[in-house]
Amino acid sequence: MTMHLITGGAGFIGVNLIRRLLAGGQEVVVVDDMSRGRIENLGELEADPRVRVATLDCADADGFGAFVAGLDGRVDDVWHLAANSDIPAGIADPAIDLQRTFLTTFGTLAVMRRFGIGRLHFASSSAIYGDFGETVIHEDIGPLEPISNYGAMKLASEAQIRAAAEAWLPCARIFRFPNVIGVPATHGVILDFVEKLRATPDRLDVLGDGTQQKAYLHVDDLVDAMLHIAALDGRYRVFNIGPSDDGITVRRIAETVRDAASPSAAIAFGEGNRGWVGDVPRFRYSVDRLLATGWRPRLGSQAAMERAVAEIVGARA
Amino acid sequence: MTMHLITGGAGFIGVNLIRRLLAGGQEVVVVDDMSRGRIENLGELEADPRVRVATLDCADADGFGAFVAGLDGRVDDVWHLAANSDIPAGIADPAIDLQRTFLTTFGTLAVMRRFGIGRLHFASSSAIYGDFGETVIHEDIGPLEPISNYGAMKLASEAQIRAAAEAWLPCARIFRFPNVIGVPATHGVILDFVEKLRATPDRLDVLGDGTQQKAYLHVDDLVDAMLHIAALDGRYRVFNIGPSDDGITVRRIAETVRDAASPSAAIAFGEGNRGWVGDVPRFRYSVDRLLATGWRPRLGSQAAMERAVAEIVGARA
């Protein structure tokens, strides 16, 4: 049995990854500071005898290390998912992304090095790329100019992991993914719309003019891709993960949520095609490197969005 | 009179920049934690009535801010040069580059934002690029895979500055430069060789086989380029700075230092073409973007090296 330690394991992606790891017969250690993760997200998984949960901040390398020391050297793989997932909050206060998005990575690396844990899988982000407009974004593109503190601290994390791979870390996987949707949703445009319609069932206010277009990946496909990449050879490998389409517009999402949650609501769009500072209005994302390894997403952006809307509206009903 | 604040101002590049700013009739505030900078480096500049010196760590945004509050809102430009300049030390302990190379940038940005200082000039590094082998490195190249903690934290700094430029910082300049040489030398291959020959005048041991080839820029040319770029238009601009040649080998440097400092010494080369983990054996550096703005270096790598050897051997005599 392989033991997997998941930082941010009580968050949206964490609980979906854990479910798959347990289904595959693995053992799981959840590390989460519960700042945005919630123990309730784990649901029935918490009671599984192969699951252990620690409430701690992985930016605190001493506290994190003291906990890992108690695991008797049994950790094989670390999935580092802990990060500030609230991009606008990080715009308002850069210290949030410093602490939760970068220093969590720094602390995780320090603990891995101390205990000789050699396999790291890191949830990076398409936000490291910044705004390439109509240019197709492949993994080797430059220049890298993130326009949010979140993107900056994800890029900083990748850089630190890359240097660690040069010096001591034998296996590192970087997953760069765009918007991931599904349940338990903790943030994001679908949840935002559902909550707005709950507050004002007759009206849905949308930031921006609705033309922003993004690719959406369902969390089931994301976890599937992460496990696929983790099994590939190599010391340091970077992959875009996403659907193989160009995405869907915010307008389309707003309409789908409206139809599912409050069919008689009027949708009111704002102006401009950036919802907030740091938002990228549109991007085109190449997943050719991942497709070349034989992996295929089950759902495109449209189908992923429709399924996530049904799941989120259902979960809130 | 414009007021320039220089972090790391008591270091090698800082004192050369200050001399030029004073010659141009400017006012200067030196901020340095004196961990590697030295007050003696400032020499006669310290007595200039237009120069103020503060010993503080710019990673400490509170202490740094309290000092800047006393400057009556007069700072126009910040030149952020503070960083750990000892790359091998940062390989041994990543916390050094975190604290001195990245958190100094984070603290500097926090203070600038708090006091509404709108012009930042940042000393980045060719180390952000990692190892591109024979490929010519231009500013927009990818992927960016720094192989040292120093390079990782310089890239993290650039990313944080880029996000600040998106949100609030109206003017940011990024200087990426390779090895810079001259006096007062605080580290680097020439000083290393001079000191080795002082210890053992009959023998010079060289790490690696001497075939590592790098471009070298004299600090006079570097400062000239930085001032040139600072005067250009634009919100966020990135420039490689360097000579327009492909560089010179470590063997050539060893021979020049030997000839100047201890002509009868035997040179003993090691094995392999990497001196230490994180060292890049060879790179080809494009400065076309800078040349297109009309700037020209006065010295190529060979002439810069010969002049720096004479200066360093002279300074130590």
Can you tell me about this structure?
2 copies of one chain form a homodimer. Chain A is 40% helix and 20% strand. Chain A folds into 2 domains: 3-180 and 216-240, NAD(P)-binding Rossmann-like Domain (Rossmann fold), CATH 3.40.50.720; 184-215 and 247-278 and 299-316, UDP-galactose 4-epimerase, domain 1, CATH 3.90.25. Chain A has helices spanning 12-23, 39-42, 61-69, 87-92, 94-115, 149-167, 189-199, 219-230, 250-261, 288-291, 301-316, and strands spanning 3-7, 27-32, 51-55, 75-80, 119-125, 136-137, 171-177, 179-181, 203-206, 213-214, 216-218, 236-240, 248-249, 266-269, 284-285. Chain A has a 7-stranded parallel sheet with strand order 3-2-1-4-5-7-12, sandwiched between helices. Chain A has a two-stranded parallel ribbon with strand order 6-15. Chain A has a two-stranded parallel ribbon with strand order 8-11. In chain A, strand 2 (27-32), helix 2 and strand 3 (51-55) form a beta-alpha-beta unit. Chain A is globular and about 60 Å long. The longest helix of chain A is centred in the N-terminal third of the chain and has 22 residues, at 94-115. In chain A, 51% of the residues are buried. The first copy, chain A, is of the alpha/beta class. The N and C termini of chain A lie far apart (38 Å). At the A-B interface, helix 5 and helix 6 of A face helix 5 and helix 6 of B.
